[in-house]
Amino acid sequence: xxxxxxxxxxxxxxxxxxxxxxxxxxxxxxxxxxxxxxxxxxxxxxxxxxxxxxxxxxxxxxxxxxxxxxxxxxxxxxxxxxxxxxxxxxxxxxxxxxxxxxxxxxxxxxxxxxxxxxxxxxxxxxxxxxxxxxxxxxxxxxxxxxxxxxxxxxxxxxxxxxx
Length: 163
Known about the structure:
Blueprint: H1 3-19, H2 31-45, H3 48-56, H4 71-78, H5 81-88, H6 104-111, H7 114-122, H8 137-143, H9 147-160
Helix pairs in contact: 2-3, 2-4, 4-5, 4-6, 5-7, 6-7, 6-8, 7-9, 8-9
């Protein structure tokens, strides 16, 4: 990526970040959204018992918040591989996309969470998915100088022919 293109990519990503608040901040007042909010907060806080209780009592592991973030995306963004493994044990949709087209794999790549990326890839995360701006997980790894994440995605490319 040339210098100007990289600058534009980072700028667009930063602006998007300002427009899309963290998953646990903005929710509507419906009961369904309240359950989603509590689920997201439990993920962020690492409360496995609360997560299990919410899911057993009807919370949808694939329900997204107002910005389209799912519980798996919240776990991937947290950088906690134990929480990611726990959420994956409920068989969420690993390729779900938020309103900007982002995936859990893209979030993990952006922050360089290679263990989380490996977990997601092992569960079928598709590295060829593009967000609304035409960027894939590997583009986030490259733009944010996450060398190990980039190399992991290059390996996925050679093994799976996905990119």
